[in-house]
Amino acid sequence: MNTSKKKKTTTDQTDLAQKAYLGIRQMLFHNEIVPGQKIAYRDLAERLEMSPTPVIQALKFLEFQGLVRREPNRGYYTEPISLIEVREVFELREMLEVSLLPRALENLDEKGITRLKKAYEAHLATSNSIYPSERLLKNVEFHLTLASLSQCSIHQKVLQNLFDLMNLKYRSGVIYLTSMEMTDPNHEQLFEAITARELSKAQKLLTMHISDSRKLVIMGLERMVEEKKILTI
């Protein structure tokens, strides 16, 4: 096989693995694969209309992200719910987001205000949506847009990974975050404090917002554990 054919084959394999990865992410997000479930990779390959090889490659990357685990001679499983992990994720998220606010306000210009306002209004527009996942995604978009104003790329990537973990592994509990009665006023007050460049007020509002979100998520997950709808550790 010549060099050009080898490169094409490698590219095709990478593209298929990426397609498999995105497909499995969608299944996790829509609760088609639930915590603690054994993953039949051959069934996934059939659903995704591809061979098992790229599916296994995708599962290896999801294992690296902490979303699935591989047990020798048994295969892949989704990780069970861990309330300790949820608390840790929110603690880290609070530290990251609040620490980025000074830099965000320092870099804030009219373009940044416009971007943040657009993200805020996009979330507000989902208030009448019958799809909780849509509100959830727009909530994440608002927070990531705010973080992006800091121009701290590494921090943003870490924050994105935290949101991925919560949305893909703990989506059933995270749906409680989409309560418009809580989230919309929080976002509005936060947006106003940021555009007014009131750093101390913005930090307090953001801390309170994330703390309230943590309580709602844990409450939802604890309820599901009690009803034995999910596995936990």
TrEMBL record:
DNA-binding keyword on record: yes
Coiled coil location: none
UniProt superkingdom: Bacteria
Domain HTH gntR-type per the UniProt entry, residue ranges: 14-81
Keywords noted in UniProt: DNA-binding, Transcription, Transcription regulation
GO MF, one example: DNA-binding transcription factor activity
SMART domains: FCD (SM00895), HTH_GNTR (SM00345)
Protein name: HTH-type transcriptional regulator
Xref: InterPro entries: GntR_C, TF_FadR/GntR_C, Tscrpt_reg_HTH_GntR, WH-like_DNA-bd_sf, WH_DNA-bd_sf
